[in-house]
Design goal:
- The protein is α/β, with parallel strands linked by helices.
- Helix content is 41%, strand content 14%.
- The strands form five sheets. It has a seven-stranded mixed β-sheet, with helices on both faces. Strands 13-14-17-16 form a four-stranded antiparallel β-sheet, covered by helices on one side. Strands 1-2 form a two-stranded antiparallel ribbon.
- Strand 9, helix 11 and strand 10 form a beta-alpha-beta unit.
- About 1% of the residues have low confidence.
Length: 473
């Protein structure tokens, strides 16, 4: 019997793929990993992978399809033509797939070999590890048996969020607050629970929402509204509303993702007046509010709400950690009751333990202390990033100085293919967010994050980016 070490490498790859097919991990109709991925995984040349693939194609298990890739076409243990093809079910699901570029970025953001100039998350060196341990220990020492929370969420946390919002002149009681698993779930609940199929979401153009498929999957249209340095342009909002009877406005007024724009106080008042006049409900996504540098932003739109038309969304993901999966919606009670019912149908409530930990952060005052340190750290990172961008991209691009948040929105002036720039950067270990994922008219832009990468990686990544742009132009 041959020892394991004497088995040819291509045969090891064949055995691996046959096992994946036989145990159903790679069902009929599914696309297998690329030759490059397999070669990297097995640490072999692509020629070895090609040999294994050719053998399995000859056996009738795989088929190479032009423009698609290599597809599983059969199963040695079940050759019946009536075999279930999961691929047809995957494509039939209600929730639309993310764009291929977005999927690629999402998958790559967990890989350590990339310099993460794309990631909208705080660096690990800003994670308050010791304080988090202390709070978790404190919570665990006082914990009693717990199970499902009430539909709106853990009451002490809702009370803490209510007190926190009160400091921003957003006066909502705990009964008008729903705890959700991050701001993303808040948007999902709104899309399936409050909006009619065929209705329209008005939003800034570009917007982070364009990189998601939450609203489109619910049969809702997205219509972009231009913005300037003060935020969304109200006159365009009025013009579009006349053509869209059922419409709701989604806005990200503080350090807008991806442009970093901070909506002025005057513009906020204009938007409230316009939306009140035309009966346009508002979803205010304010998750970057606390991440200001020199002075606090204007009060939330919700603080000016006298008609109950505004749904206010907040989260701990950008300021503390996305790992807790804790966010909230503040809205009129009938809306909260409706969304709470839907959330119970989806997941029966956010993590009880996470909610208790979040409540302790907010109640103890430690959260505000932590956010102050985060602002100081982000300011330093922003200054370093802008210095490096000026050094390596001046003459090739233009950009605005962000007043807060995570991102610099960079307009590439050089006449180059942005797809090539993204692809070439990725091959050199740099992950970027190309502008087209936020709106097709933003294809000449990239969103660069200074929040996650180390200072050393920022320097290396931005320098390489400049060299790449020069080489392509």
């Amino acid at each position: 019997m041959l020892s394991k070490s004497s088995i040819p490498k291509y045969e090891k790859i064949m055995r691996y793929m046959k096992e994946k097919i036989s145990n159903g991990e790679w069902p009929i109709g599914s696309k297998i990993p690329s030759q490059r991925q397999l070669a990297k995984e097995f640490n072999v040349n692509r020629s070895t992978v090609i040999t294994a693939l050719e053998e399995l194609i000859a056996d009738g298990l795989l088929e190479a399809q032009m423009g698609v890739g290599t597809i599983v076409t059969n199963n040695t243990w079940n050759l019946l033509s009536s075999s279930l093809n999961w691929n047809t079910h995957v494509e039939a699901g209600m929730l639309k797939q993310s764009r291929s570029t977005v999927q690629e970025i999402n998958n790559s953001e967990s890989q350590q070999q990339f310099i993460q100039l794309s990631k909208g998350e705080l660096s690990s060196d800003m994670f308050p590890l010791q304080k988090m341990k202390e709070i978790i220990n404190k919570v665990s020492n006082h914990i009693t048996p717990f199970g499902y929370e009430e539909p709106k969420g853990y009451l002490p946390l809702r009370k803490a969020v209510s007190a926190y919002l009160h400091k921003m002149n957003v006066n909502v009681s705990p009964s008008s607050i729903l705890i959700v698993s991050g701001a993303l779930q808040a948007l999902q609940l709104v899309s399936i629970g409050l909006l009619h199929k065929g209705s329209t979401v008005l939003l800034e153009k570009p917007s982070y929402l364009y990189s998601l498929r939450i609203f489109q999957s619910a049969g809702i249209n997205l219509t972009g509204i231009p913005l300037d340095q003060e935020g969304l342009l109200v006159q365009h909002l009025e013009h579009v509303k006349k053509k869209r009877k059922e419409a709701v406005l989604y806005t990200n007024p503080c350090f807008h993702n991806p442009t970093g724009t901070l909506m002025s106080e005057k513009r906020r008042k204009n938007i409230i007046e316009t939306c009140t006049k035309h009966q346009i409900p508002i979803i205010e996504d304010d998750i970057y509010r606390e991440l200001w540098f020199e002075e606090a932003p204007p009060l939330p739109l919700k603080s000016l709400d006298q008609t109950g038309h505004i749904l206010y969304v907040g989260s701990l993901s950008k300021t503390l950690t996305p790992g807790l999966r804790i966010g909230w919606i503040a809205a009129p009670e009938p809306v909260i009751n409706r969304l709470a019912d839907i959330k119970m149908q989806i997941d029966y409530g956010s993590s009880s333990l996470s909610q208790r930990v979040a409540a302790e952060w907010l109640q103890s005052g430690l959260y505000e202390e932590h956010v102050k340190k985060v602002r100081e750290n982000l300011l330093e990172r922003k200054n370093v990033a802008l210095k490096l961008i000026k050094q390596h991209l001046e003459g090739l691009a233009i950009w605005e100085k962000p007043q807060g948040g995570f991102f610099v929105w960079i307009h590439i002036l050089a006449p180059i293919s942005m797809k090539s720039l993204y692809a070439r950067a990725r091959t050199q270990g740099i992950l970027l967010n190309p502008g087209h994922i936020y709106h097709e008219q933003s294809s000449r832009y990239i969103r660069l994050s200074y929040a996650y990468a180390s200072m050393q990686d920022l320097e290396v990544g931005i320098k390489k980016l400049g060299l790449l742009i020069r080489s392509l132009s």
